[in-house]
Write a structure and sequence with these properties.
By secondary structure, the protein is an alpha/beta fold. It has two domains: 5-44 and 284-385, Aspartate Aminotransferase, domain 1 (Alpha-Beta Complex), CATH 3.90.1150; 47-280, Type I PLP-dependent aspartate aminotransferase-like (Major domain) (Aspartate Aminotransferase, domain 2). Helix content is 41%, strand content 15%. It has twelve helices and 13 strands. An eight-stranded mixed sheet has the order 2-9-8-7-6-3-4-5, with helices on both faces. The structure holds pyridoxal-5'-phosphate.
Length: 387
């Protein structure tokens, strides 16, 4: 059977591959500590679940407009306006089925065949598939831990060609846990503007900064080529509810919404009501999660950092890059061996780009006890395999 050649352009995530391996090991009776995936271990707060029940009891179960319900778009606009001291209207917001779909829609809306998009290395691998589906070409730029994993303007400039259309940034970062300063963000906004690029800022971890403050690309200095991606998945532990959004100029929002039509018609109506409750309801649940992620980063640092194995101390999100270069193994091999030998699942660095062949990423979105246990097993394993 001959299937579409587009299939070969997808970049399957190495994280999902480890999840499948870990699930198989678990099925065969092995106990596994899951540090491979960014799946918060918190329950969705009860008031959000209550609102979803209420919406379904009230039969709010029909299709919504492509770009989402007016009331959720308004809530997202108000949230962004308050946080960033800018004027965002509902016409600047498109609700999507998660941040993943938001990124896909943006690529469909802005790219022509052959357009190039600058992507972070290390960076989240899913960007690559969306860019490819939009007909574009991903061009990695380097994030160096010695420079806080911030983009280097000279390096970026050297990657610009007549085909460069956009640049993706992601702070707090996956897999780095890096956070950006407002000075650095201003530089990036200027860089994008002077090269006439869309600046796509993935801020899905915006609520989880434990050192410093979150800096959004959407501020009073940003041009109308700034595109912000975020959602409720991480902030409210709602990954399975599938609600994210795009904030951008009206033209991009209208185009993105048109691309929703053939793939989903609209995001789930019930989930949209739940997301509204999340955004407009009490926010102490977010603070609780932030405190937990901060504490867990501290636990992992106390074990792996003390052993000199943490590439760079994270300041946000719930990830950490661990150096495995002493073992002489590439990250794919190491990850398999670690899982088989000691039952800890982690993500291979190379799935985040060439820069990270000698690293693994751990997620600390699991219980304090498991962070301690998993980190200790990883530290002892690296030590035992060091050449
Ligand atoms: C950097 C980054 N962006 C976007 C997403 C997408 O989130 P969602 O679950 O809302 O699709 C993730 C999820 O892991 C992520 O790590």
């Amino acid at each position: 059977m001959k299937l579409s050649s587009r299939l070969s352009k997808l970049h399957p995530s190495g994280i999902r591959a480890v999840m499948a391996l870990a699930a198989a090991r678990k099925k065969s009776g092995m106990s596994v500590i899951h540090m491979e995936v960014g799946q918060p271990d918190f329950k969705t707060p009860q008031h959000i679940i209550d609102e979803a029940f209420k919406a379904s009891r009230n039969q709010y179960i029909g299709y919504t407009p492509n770009a989402g319900t007016d009331s959720l778009r308004e809530s997202v606009a108000e949230r962004a306006s308050c946080r960033n001291k800018v004027n965002v209207n509902k016409e600047n917001v498109c609700i999507t089925s998660g941040g993943v779909m938001a990124i896909y829609l943006v690529m469909m809306a802005i790219l022509e065949n052959g357009d190039e998009v600058l992507v972070p290395d290390p960076g989240w691998p899913n960007y690559l598939s969306s860019i490819a589906m939009g007909g574009g070409k991903a061009k990695p730029y380097m994030l160096n831990p010695d420079n806080n994993y911030w983009p280097d303007i000279e390096d970026l400039q050297s990657k610009i060609t007549p085909n460069t259309k956009a640049m993706i940034i992601n702070f707090p970062g996956n897999p780095t846990g890096a956070v950006i300063t407002s000075e650095k963000m201003d530089e990036l906004i200027n860089f994008a503007e002077s090269n006439d690029l869309y600046l796509i800022s993935d801020e899905i971890y915006e609520d989880f900064v434990f050192e410093g403050k979150h800096v959004s690309a959407l501020n009073n200095k940003s041009s109308d080529k700034v595109i912000l991606i975020s959602g409720v998945s991480k902030s409210y532990s709602m990954t399975g509810w599938r609600i994210g959004w795009i904030i951008a100029n009206e033209e991009i929002i209208e185009a993105s919404a048109q691309f929703v039509e053939p793939i989903a018609s609209c995001p789930s109506s019930i989930s949209q009501y739940a997301a509204e409750a999340a955004i407009n309801g009490p926010q102490d649940c977010v603070k609780e999660m932030l405190d937990a992620y901060s504490r867990r980063a501290g636990i992992a640092m106390s074990v792996l950092g003390k052993a000199g194995l943490v590439v760079n101390k994270p300041q946000g999100a719930f990830y950490m890059m661990i150096d495995i270069s002493n073992t002489g193994q590439n990250s794919d091999d190491f990850v398999r061996n670690l899982l088989d030998d000691v039952g800890v699942a982690v993500a291979p660095g190379q799935t985040f780009g060439h820069s990270s062949m000698n690293s693994i990423r751990i997620s600390t979105a699991i219980s304090d006890a498991d962070v301690m246990k998993g980190s200790t097993l990883i530290r002892d394993y690296i030590t035992s395999k060091s050449l």
